[in-house]
Amino acid sequence: MAETFPEALIGVAAPTGGERERFGSFGSRVRFGPEALVELASIPGTVVVNGVVGSAGLGASVAALEAGNRLALANKESLVAGGPVVLDALRRGGGELIPVDSEHSALFQCLVGERSRDVRRLILTASGGPLRSKTRDEIANVTPAEALAHPTWSMGPRITIDSATLVNKGFEVIEAHHLFGMEYESIDVVVHPQSIVHSLVEFEDGSLKAQIGEPDMRIPIQYAITYPNRERGGGRFDLAGKTLTFFEPDGEAFPAFGVVLEAGRRGGSTPAAVNAADEIAVRAFLDGRLGLLGIASVLEQTIERIPTIDVDTVDDVLAVDAEARAVASSLIGGAC
How much is the pTM? Predict the structure, then answer.
């Protein structure tokens, strides 16, 4: 990509020796180190697409908004861990925050032109992941390979496991709370295996508006970059023969979902703590050191051990993140 776009600047946040050598030929176009992403996101007049995985993307999100840029946000952890910090940067910098996640892009599109007082409820859809038809007992014995076999989306390992546990959907509820200013009691989740209805908005008159389309991430990415325009892109959608089904998520089979929702309701630093603990727990599961249901136990015990405090800066969030990682690692080392 660096060769395809000769004017592009390049940021490598955590370079290996090989990467320093490989990118060295690009000279001053390359920025290395933890502040590389922040520096590039701060360039005024740019559209910043943040697809970084984990809380490492928070600094770049804040920098983009403080610079008055449009932030096309795929890094949901920015809002999960640092929602108040991101929204404060948005207010101060006067930038734009457009979601890239397919569910939040759907809600955003459904809300264009609507009055906030007319909205009764936001409804996020979930594919249910690869384990949606399994019982709690079956899930207890799931292997990493089984949990990584997502039926709809091709994603990285952490988000695929988060989809399997419904942790990802809990994070998306927190994200929707911050993006759209809705109380948690007014945000619901339904499992929709076909992944055709990407989310819905229910209005006070009882009507619903849904955004429907093929499960193709190119569509919400393009929308976030080109909004309010709609550039020609995907093909025609064939409704004939399609069947749409919806059902409630199983809280007993997927206990981590409820833990994440509770973290969101507590607010403050607790979402940052649960996000960090999840990152550690997912890695332990993938390494064979923790069962899939053990992830929920790690999350729950971590947020119980770390008090909820206000988070006002990126440093505040990162301090909670570090503490939660240490607690979660200790819990896993002691088998919870």
Answer: 0.93
